[in-house]
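It would be a great kindness if you could assist me with a short task in structural biology. The matter concerns a single protein, recorded as an amino acid sequence and a row of backbone structure tokens. The record follows directly beneath this note:
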Amino acid sequence: MSRLSMVQGTGLDDLLSGAPGALDADNEMRGQIRQQLSPRLYALIGVVVAGCLGCEQFVENLRGPLDGFAAVQIAKDWRNAALAEAERAALAYAEKGTLEEGSVRRADVEALRTAGFDDKDILVIATAIAYHNYSIRMAAVFAVTPR
């Protein structure tokens, strides 16, 4: 149960339902991101952000099409996982954008370009990283599950 008595459920949707317009805004943002990323990359970013934030308890909720065991391992140490080079580049960016956001530089964006992402892809990846940081942190603070 949430840490807020007004929330009558255990999920982020339940939490956001308590603030007018918040659930609709969240659904729209998440929907836009998911339309533009593969389900695998979206899940990989979520799992890695959860791992970076020390919220491995949310991996099952975020793993999407990823195998459960693999998702847990990726959250703990994505660098030793069997991943495509483009996925590695996106996850390095996710890790840095989560743990050291103030140190992200042009070279980090260039690494994504080198991995085959164009500017639109990079913007969507950055938005997915920001979304997962927001939703995982909200879920952790209020003791609900992210999506």
